[in-house]
Amino acid sequence: MRIRQHRLPLVALDDIAWIACHMFVHWQSWGARDLAVIGDSLSGDEIAATFARVTGVPSTYLPMPHAELHAVVPEFSHDYAAMFQFFADRDVYTQDRDINLLRRLHPGLMTFEGLAAAHRLEGMRPTVLLGIRHPATGLGCPRPNRRVYVFDHLGFGQSDQREGQDLSLTAHAGNFARLLDHWELPRPSVVAHDIGGAVALRTLLGTRGCFPPAPGLRS
Question: Are residues 164 and 196 in the same domain?
Answer without folding.
Answer: yes
